[in-house]
């Protein structure tokens, strides 16, 4: 009947939905098969997993020995022999401690019996459950007596005992040896696998890359990241365990607990077991302290020692030594421990973290398995603007304010929050306004944004005089969202010391323009989120020009097409300038209000150690041009690696900047001393901001940054993208910068920035002749609220 009434209306799932269902079913079947294979094949897979885990730990040492000239097979033998020697030595120590303890244990029996008797006496007397227990005992005795009376009328049954004949000596020996042979056989298999994994590391890597298939770059990154994370995990785990065991052994020795060395060694090994290991390592010394001391002081001191060391290890040692996490969230760590323990038993618990790290890395690098990164990873799956927007949609502005406070605390600036995240939130709001948003959603977002901005204005008030005449008027162009952006910009201008006012969007009529009250205002900034603001902006600007002909007009186009950002585009609308971000708007308005500051903004203040820095530069003698050929080659390599039009290496002395390396011939004034270097005054230096701050600077689009838009070198070289990494010596002096430049705007991700820092360190090594200083690792993305997990204990 439904088909008759609505013949064109589908009544079943669409083809796309059916495809999704089939794919989901296929993934479930594959997952079931894999889990079943892991369970059935654990006899082979467990030794393999242990072997690969050990090989990850030993591989860096084998690689180091190979690099110093020792053949690889000999390096493997040396490392494994050292490992055997260490294990054998620890075994001898543990064995001697066990023999000593076994000889002394009978002497502790009387102490234990006396303590237990004392505890029993303290708990004697009537209790709250005594009546119930007596009732149960009475009923039980009555039932036993009734059964015995019934059985007494029957003749007693004869009890027959079957005695097995004595087995053959060979069978008895096998029964005794089998439980001992199985672990030894497993250990032998593991050792063979470890040796082969270390010996054929390249071949195994090639086979894994072939199995991963697809993109060779992605497969290589997957293996490198997995190896790096697991190796670091194991190394840091060893360091943490040793740092825990040494003070534990010394503390137990001072307290007087017998076998203190045994308990320290045992704790260092048991702590490899997540969650359970630390508790197991604490049971043995506490039990012995209970048995040895007639009183309770030794038990209490031992307990205080263990609790203190756990607190120090968990809150001091692990954050310092681990540095960064495994990338797993707290929930995934617990779930992984549960899953692998259920699948492989106690060994699965030990291997749970490394195995789950492998799954995380695979999910991070293979698009088909990206859900693993979402399920297991600690990095937030939503960026900051999306998280704030979601909280507003849910009607939870308080949570959004908490996120904002965390971001501002990290960035240290409200203006930076508006620039990086605030406008991005509004951009998402504008994109959803006509598509996904309902009226209820729009109201929640509007009310939430009002609450957010009120809170930010109260928590971060501007220091400008409230009575100051506004010099800038920020006016919403068409929609409510345009007005909210104006509030952000106005607050940012006030924080920068520029008196401003804000006006909400309205119907563009002559009366509305007359009522704006713009006396004393020098600059009008119109805000638009529309992708096609031309018609509305042209009408608004025409009316403003008619009523206020002496005002300068800036268009803030947060979401406009690229053609409107070019001079011929926004000038056709009647505007004097265009901006696309909060930072650009603040800088552009500063320059329009104070044109004389344009030159000053292009040059940064000299660092406090500038005289020492210049002396360090002179000491390298790089300005005499002796390293020019090598520096040109490094600049050429940087340009090729990052696929930019050209790269330069600059050095700044007290008054001038010298281009000491370049990837291609560039125009500019040259030195006349035969070195043929491009030279420019320091107040026109392209890397002056990098030298002043000592930090990498990236300008995605120089046209959008007033510091660079009118920079002489940027204009001369027709540059739209700039990235500069400081050339910092081991003593902390910044000699200059390694700069990437391109004729088109672009961006660099975190990995590319780290690579740029590394290449800058190589340049410093060439200039100074010293070994390259490893640059500081850039901070990871903030983890979610449930993580920050270093590693499980």
Automatic annotation (TrEMBL):
The protein's name: AI-2E family transporter
First-listed, main subcellular location of the protein, grouped into a coarse class: membrane
Matching InterPro entries: AI-2E-like, GAF, GAF-like_dom_sf
UniProt cross-references to Gene3D superfamilies, sorted A to Z: 3.30.450.40
Coiled coil segments of this chain: none
Subcellular localization, as worded in the UniProt entry: Membrane
Membrane topology: Multi-pass membrane protein
Organism of derivation: Paracoccus amoyensis
Record family assignment: Belongs to the autoinducer-2 exporter (AI-2E) (TC 2.A.86) family.
Keyword presence, Hydrolase: no
SUPFAM superfamilies, alphabetized: GAF domain-like
Keywords: Membrane, Transmembrane, Transmembrane helix
Pfam families xrefs: AI-2E_transport, GAF
